[in-house]
Amino acid sequence: MTLTAVLTGSFRNPELRFTFPWGARMPKGGDAGEWIKKKVPGRRWDPSAKTWYITGTGGHPDRFFEAHGIEVDYSEATGDLAGLDSLESLWRPMVKRSSRFPHMAFVRPRLAGFEKVGAILGAGASWDKKLARFEVLLADLVTDDGDPKRGIQLDPLTYEAAVQARQLEAIPDDVREAARELAASTGVIGDHQDELSPRTQELIDIIATHTGYLPKWFGLALYPFQVAGAYAIAGGHRALCDAPGLGKTRQALAAAAIVRSRRTVIIVPPLVVENWCREAYAALGPGLKRLQPKVEEPAPAPATKRKSKAKPKAPPKKPDFPDYIVPIRAGKKVPDFPESGVIVVADSLLGSRPELLDQLIAWQPMAALFDEVHRSRTWAGQRATANRNLACSIDALRLPMTGTPFLQNPAEGANMLAIAGLLDPVFGGASKFMETYTKQNHFGAFLPNRKMLPDLEKRLSRHCWVRRNKGDVLKQLPPKLRTTRYVDINPKGFKDAHETLYEKVKEWIDEQRDLGEAITADSIKTFARTRVDLITPLRAAAGVAKVPAAIEIISDWMESTTEIVNGKKVYTRPLTVWVHHQPVMQALVEAVEKAGIADAGFIDGGVPQHKRQLVADKLQNGEIGVIFCSIGAAGFGITLTASSDTIFIETDWTPANISQAEDRNNRIGQTQTCMVTTLMATNTLDAHMRAILRNKAKDLNVLLPGADNNVTAMTSVLNEQINAYEAITEEDLELEKNFKSLGDIIENIVMDILGQHGYDLAA
Question: What domains are defined for the chain?
Answer without folding.
Answer: 3-89 (no CATH), 92-165 (no CATH), 173-291+317-475 (3.40.50.10810), 481-489+533-754 (3.40.50.300)
